[in-house]
Write a structure and sequence with these properties.
- By secondary structure, the protein is mainly α.
- The chain is built from 21 helices and no strands.
- Helices cover 79% and strands 0% of the residues.
- The chain starts with 5 loop residues before the first helix and ends with a helix.
- Bound molecules: aspartic acid.
Length: 440
């Protein structure tokens, strides 16, 4: 029998997880699921995060030291940042156009607003998000640059939230490695080459458990979800976000077809395990190792490009998040009966662009930065908890969907950049058991 492709196995796992979660809800099995099923999903996410930093370090250092000449790196860097900004602005514009045309906030009744406010405005996680946002907001305009530079490499390597610092350190080390000449660089280079292979093999091994892990992750999402009545009241808003996200995937397909001349359906099929994991974990950082593996081995993007484009993308390029922030901000204004002028909408484009760059690649981060977008267009502070309360109930499912777009966007840009510098080759698929015969 032909082996079932990984994405099908993951999809079946997800579906069974959803069904299991619904059954558990009916029979009062929430505690059982949290005690016995949830840990399986959490362990899987931890394993992925465990290898993210070693992978970024090894792969970026290998990627840069393979370059032979630094001007190539500058070329890749400028194109990457440029295309990231373009895709994000497209995403925000789609979000704004849809929310203005479909006006999801106008249909929300006073009753629903009162109910949502009562249920969520005092919620500790809503308050925590507002508090976190105010910390971010108090920093100066160049704070992000300052934050990018570590003063202790080992401290940076020991904290997953400091991914940009790790990227900075790896680029610095990689460039210096290039500058000392091939002969003297050889030992360190082969160390990182080998580390890189090992970590990619770890991804293969972890992915063997993915179908079971997504079962656990989704079962847990279902048992911890909110009251279905509340979810239903927000259906139109959620629908606008999801429609925008789907359109964004179409845009990526157009990018792939136009700029790389590859079949977009093939692209979606090859990247699908990463998308499904993004959906199940709501974290582009946790998905990064799998995104890298798919893009390099299954799509054929050269490591010189993917090793820079993908980790940077996971931290700063969040098209799904920025689209969501644009829709959510306007929705909240509409629902509360407040006006937004055209120049306010332009402000949303700029702040959502910066906010998505500043959002961490972890579940729920987009909502923290949404607070900053809302404040930039003048939502009074006393209405902030109410604003967030309005969208809180559907935030988790929307987070799952926007993370898929975030990851797909990074993969698309890596292909486009690779093609533009002649580094898009043929896929070289490695299975988890390649080399196994040698060690048996
Ligand atoms: N969960 C998203 C990500 O990791 C960020 C967000 O939109 O909250 O990509």
């Amino acid at each position: 029998m032909k082996k079932l492709a990984l994405h099908w196995k993951i999809l079946i796992g997800m579906l069974l997880g959803l069904i299991f979660g619904f059954i558990m809800l009916q029979v009062g099995g929430r505690a059982f699921t949290e005690d016995w099923i949830k840990p399986i999903g959490s362990i899987f996410v931890k394993l992925l995060k465990l290898i993210a930093i070693p992978l970024i370090l090894a792969s970026l250092i290998k990627g840069i030291s393979d370059l032979k000449d630094i001007s190539k790196f500058k070329n890749i860097g400028i194109r990457t940042i440029g295309i990231y900004i373009v895709t994000t602005v497209i995403a925000i514009s789609i979000g704004l156009a849809l929310v203005n045309i479909m006006q999801p906030g106008d249909g929300v009744s006073e009753e629903t607003i009162a109910k949502l406010t009562e249920t969520y405005s005092e919620n500790s996680s809503v308050k925590a998000k507002i508090a976190e946002a105010s910390k971010q907001k108090d920093s100066g305009p160049l704070q992000f640059l300052e934050d990018m530079v570590p003063d202790n490499a080992f401290l940076a390597l020991s904290d997953n939230r400091l991914m940009l610092q790790v990227i900075f350190f790896a680029i610095f080390l990689g460039i210096s490695l290039l500058l000392i000449g091939e002969k003297r660089a050889a030992p360190l280079k082969s160390f990182f080459d080998s580390l890189n292979d090992v970590v990619l093999k770890m991804v293969d091994l972890i992915m063997l458990t993915a179908p079971i892990a997504v079962f656990a992750l989704l079962a847990n999402v279902v048992v911890s979800s909110d009251d279905p009545d509340i979810l239903f009241a927000l259906l139109k808003y959620a629908g606008v976000v999801v429609l925008g996200l789907v359109l964004m995937i179409v845009i990526y397909c157009v990018f792939v077809a136009t700029f790389t001349k590859k079949n977009p359906f093939w692209f979606l099929k090859e990247i699908s395990p990463a998308q499904l994991l993004a959906f199940s974990t709501s974290s582009s950082a946790a998905t990064l190792p799998v995104t890298m593996e798919r893009v390099e081995e299954h799509i054929g993007v050269d490591k010189e490009v993917s090793s820079f484009v993908l980790p940077v993308g996971a931290t700063i390029n969040m098209d799904g998040t920025s689209l969501y922030q644009a829709v959510a901000a306007v929705f909240i204004f509409q629902a509360l009966g407040l006006d937004l002028t055209f120049s306010d909408q332009i402000t949303i484009v700029l702040t959502a662009l910066l906010a998505s760059i500043g959002s961490a690649a972890v579940p729920g981060a987009g909502m923290v930065m949404l607070v900053i977008v809302l404040e930039s267009v003048g939502l009074p502070p006393e209405l902030l908890p109410i604003g967030l309360a309005l969208i809180f109930a559907v935030d988790r499912p929307l987070d799952m969907c926007r993370t898929v777009v975030n990851v797909t966007g990074d993969a698309t840009v890596s292909m486009v950049v690779a093609k533009s510098v002649g580094k898009l080759g043929e896929p070289k698929v490695k299975n988890w058991d390649d080399n196994y015969e040698e060690v048996k």
